[in-house]
User: Fold this.
Amino acid sequence: MTKRLTILGAVLAGALTLTACDAIPGFGSGSSGPKLDIPDVHPGDISEAIMKDVTRLLASDEFEGRMPGSAGEEKTIALLTERFKAVGLKPGNGDSWVQEVPLVEITGKNYMPLTIAGKAGTQSLAFGKDWVGVTYREEAKTSLKDSELVFVGYGINAPEKGWNDYAGLDVKGKTVVILVNDPDWQNEELEGTFNGKAMTYYGRWTYKYEEAARQGAAGALIIHQTQPAAYGWNVVESSWTGPQAYAQRGPNAPPLTQMNGWVTEGAARSLLKAAGQDLDALTKAAQKKGFKAVPLGMSASTSFESTFRSFTSHNVIGILPGTEAPDEYVLHTAHWDHLGRCTPAPDGDDICNGAVDNATGTAALVALAEAHVKAGAPRRTLVFLAVTAEESGLLGATYYASNPVFPLAQTVGGVNMDALQMAGRARDVTAVGFGKSALDQFLEIALRADGRKVTPDPKPENGYYYRSDHFAFAKLGVPMLYVDGGQDLLEGGREAGEAVAADYTDKRYHGPKDEFNESWDWSGVMADLQLYYRLGRMMAISTSWPNWNDGDEFRAIRDASCKASEKGC
Assistant:
């Protein structure tokens, strides 16, 4: 599951200004919209042995944490190609099993402390313990010297909401200090300028860095707080140290800051106190429209060096060609990559194996592919897409969506699988982004066949909809389902489900202890795979083209795409 997202940028901003065309025949509008062609599907013959075997291999130390561009990638690509071929898929990119993805790897080193100087004296923040930072620029040395600090609240510029934390402010050469999440994230309901407790894209740290760069800032520092960030400092430290992969930049790429980073809440409180400010009071003020940025009367300085490596990573693509409509496509996506070597555990283990995240989802591609091959090809083509560099910002998925092997207007929709939950059977599943598209109808019928129900995302404030590969396709109009494990476990109910999720987040997520466990209970995962199987096969047999619901942020994008297409939707 990703630590970094690529920003929507001009593509989404421009597309959202389009006027949605009239409803296209065959398109649905959610549960209350036109009735869709949703066929019955028998359970699939899904191999638990394959799930265990592929997960175990991908999560072994031999694969070194599956960092893109490493020997671990070479082994991963070889394994997936071998397994896709063995279960009966065909190469998905012409005669090739892979799509090349050009990336650059930047590794920071020789970090100096982040020094904060002001009238009250100087504070020295230790790298890793108190702050982390990276540069997105391909420069051998980054030097931030006496850069004025300005607190800019949530760092949001949203003209359509009448909100601009940078109003009247010139931050060129300065370092902005930013709060994570949205101004109304503490609301109990889904109502407010920024959708209340449901995080919008403005709440994601990726947006905040991009906006700071657009404003001309030299540096951007986000104050880490566990609750609004939805993860602890350990996740930030492990994810933001070591090699960082990015998409190679073109000649007209958007501006960049010199340095983007995070500071711990404790360090932020200390430096704000030295500036005569209080974090809680500033936060309260920043939550109100019309907030004015606060110069802190302090400056930041640090420096570090970087090395660079341009390389080609790979998406792996296998297909089961359709019988009647082979040029209409249904996606199954999962990311094969993880963090490679990372901050060591107390026992010295420094391999982030990524067993749950996301060897499980990658193995599911192989197991589902075999089940569909056994059942026979459906009318539409099934695409099994294992993408690279999700942990670096959905880079592989974004590259495919921008350079699709199969046209997006001819892509019916899809299902994304990320970090399958080892918690046993549940009475429900969690649907992140439920209520956005007519794919909800497929999900509800598939769940009914399994005797389960859907639970909408219980923590919309965490912004999970923007943190996995489905989002790269959704923002370009393709309806995608992101279905996670259930919360209401057969053994222990919701309390047990919450405990399992919290235990994984606190002890293993993005750390060296996300390792394969021979004693795992696979019953819940196998039940979820039956759901993914039904969803994929329903879409592949159906004659309907599900759309985003009226008023959804992606509806206009899909309608415009379909209007411009000579075939497909």
About this structure: Confidence is low (pLDDT under 50) at residues 2-32.
